[in-house]
Design brief:
Blueprint lengths: L1 E8 L2 H8 L1 H13 L8 E2 L9 E2 L2 H14 L3 E9 L3 H7 L4 H10 L5 E11 L2 E5 L5 H16 L5 E7 L1 H4 L9 H9 L10 E7 L1
Parallel strand pairs: 6-7, 7-8
Antiparallel strand pairs: 1-8, 2-3, 4-5, 5-6
Length: about 200
Amino acid sequence: MQIAARYSHLNGEEYLLVHQRELWDQVQSVIAKIDAEECRTKLSRESRKRGQLLYSPTDLNAAFKREFEALGWSQERRSFWVTSNERLMRRLHNLSPEEQKREIENAGQTPIGSYNQTDFVKDRVAVEVQFGKYAFVAHDLFVKHLHFYVSDAIDVGIEILPMKALEQEMSSGVPYYERDLVNVLRQGRGVPAVPVVLIGIVP
């Protein structure tokens, strides 16, 4: 596959070029190694695409996982505790999970375990490969990347998305770069408050 477009939010790409050039090169090399045609395995049952052989999100994700893991990238999960008390939660987000749970219990509240998990992390760079439903991109940007950044676990996030040309040959509901670029731009220059590189790919 190849990169057809990219957008650097809050100087995400510039940060990579200066501070993590090797990792940025690895991300680009992984994309180049993915053979999209090997992932065209999903026989559509949707009325407007019935019988067409589409690109499979499952196979594409598996291919990316294989290539990233071969270079030492791995999934990372960060756990935390929540409750419904707003004032309490505002005080807890920078504490360790153990401290969060203890503070919630000491306040007479019931702690609820939760977590955020990102696809691939290496040396403070996170990558999300998104071929799921379009709503997941906002969750990646405004929850996952932002949480890892605020928690001082990463310095920059990368979001890999299909371009519209690729999305048209996938099942309905898949996100595409052009729409999510606009979704980021309409938020204004500082939102989300995390350096991110959006990447649009095509076969």
